[in-house]
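Running co-folding for magnesium ion.
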Amino acid sequence: MPEILRTWLPHLMEYSEEFWRSIEETLQMLLLSGLFSFAAGLILGIALVVTREGNILENKVIHQIIDKAVNLFRSIPFVILITALIPLTKLIVGTFIGVKGAIFPLVVGCTPFFIRQVDMALTDIDHGLIEAAQSMGISPLGIIFRVYLKESIPALARSTTITAISLLGLTAMGGAVGGGGLGSFVIRYGHNRFYQDITYVSVIVILVLVSIIQFIGNVIIKKTSH
Amino acid sequence: MIQLIDVSKTFHSRNGTVQAIRNVNLEIEKSDIFGVIGYSGAGKSTLVRCINLLEYPTSGKVLLEGIDLTALNEKKLRRQRQRIGMIFQQFNLFASRTVFGNVAFPLKYKGLKKREMKEKVCSLLELAGISDKARAYPAQLSGGQKQRVAIARALANDPGILLCDEATSALDPQTTQSILKLLKDLNRKLGLTIVLITHEMSVIKEVCNRVAVMDKGRVVEQNDVFSIFSSPQAQITKDFIRTTSNLPRIDELMEEKSSIVQLKDGERLCRLDFYGAHTKEAMISWISREYQVEASIIFANVEVLSDTVLGSLIVILSGSAANQNSAVRFLTDHDIRVEVMKSA
Ligand SMILES: Nc1ncnc2c1ncn2[C@@H]1O[C@H](COP(=O)(O)OP(=O)(O)OP(=O)(O)O)[C@@H](O)[C@H]1O
Ligand SMILES: [Mg+2]
């Protein structure tokens, strides 16, 4: 078996240690920045929705600030965003390279995308449900947790899946500018040295990761839809 | 008791302002089934939503047993809202929760023990006649079943008032009947005050004891249902009443010159309206016996409203002119309104 692999994937076997480490780094970046983006995106997404005109905690100022910030950050291409964020990243985490340096820009790049996803998911909730809860004398906080979030679990699962997949894409791009992970692995060997076996195996790894994310998402959506 | 005092509501939107309700004064007594009827856009929903302040009136007061709801802060208002249940045309059930979960929704954080909660929910489901579906999700229910769940949920806080915004408009006639019957039962059993919006006079006739007629944001007429039907004042009220009886068909027949309404010499086509005590007496046979005036009935419409009979007959009278006049006088003396529609 190892003989066959060595024949067909010579470079990958040569750099196999680095290959495994870069997968690990990709997963680290995905999980950590995913977790932060999820929390930040959910909170800000909820804030964006409930402060919208005619909604339970209508507040023009807060709504406009979040809305405009999301639009601004979403319009900056990610590679440029990373570069622009270097001083801030250095200030916050002490370094702007490696996995550690990639987390912050990834969160900044991913959160606005997720906020929009949350916005869409929550806005899809029939306003009649909110009114029904209001007519029962439920508080705004109760409405957020027991109506908005509870009713949109399947939609939020879908949003999270989409966001996680796009975040995987960002981690590869982050890698290209010094973040580590599969992205930088492929740039170094697949791109710069033209070791094609490395490129194609990495593509397969990414495909597998995407499939796993999609699978988990589908299971949650199925389990929570009635 | 609910009192609306000079309530107005104006909506401001990008394409101008809409005065949805204008200077409305209403009093709804405890245990009333109070109907609100009007055409689409008349402001019925806005009016009813002003009662639990889902819509804040632009001006005026909303009193619930003397408490001015418009003067309360958010927290106090939420407590008062628990005394007013509401159901909707689109049911508004939580799709992610079972029937049981929907009814339990308002009861959470009320300090009920698990067993008490279960008993409470089960008794509410029983009351609404939907106990067998406790574990089902709303998507698995028919419209009528959904509305029963919504009713059970609206009653969870033990409110004294139930607001119904076109609660039966999405249902077929038979299901509508069963829901209206349920509302009537709840009114009798619990003394529940019900405010019911509809655009069908038949619904009013079926369950209400009082009714307000709305037109372009104003309450143009309000009275007990019997008086509204027996002596409607506003034109719009008359139009609504026409929709509930088959009598307007006579106008069509007269226009079409149908053979049914062709009169022979000396005959008169009359409309007789009667209500209350005299209805049971055999007036028709009386005039035929006493005045030799024959009355052949073309149309009849008899309503029973709050246990009083309200009826109308379209008849062709034949006999000598003098006798007919005496017969008409006799009927009029007995509180039967006679309108000669055509004579030959
Ligand atoms: N939130 C709103 N913003 C702006 N205009 C509104 C709003 N709600 C109602 N209106 C307007 O107020 C008027 C009365 O509406 P309302 O919904 O009370 O009528 P309705 O009698 O309940 O009609 P329907 O029988 O169609 O339900 C309409 O002209 C409507 O367009
Ligand atoms: Mg309406």
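Result summary
The interface with chain A takes residues 52, 54, 78-82, 84-86, 88, 90, 92, 94-97, 105-106, 108-109, 137-139, 150, 153-154, 156-157, 163 of chain B (CB under 8 Å).
The first strand of chain B starts at residue 2 and ends at 13.
Job closed.
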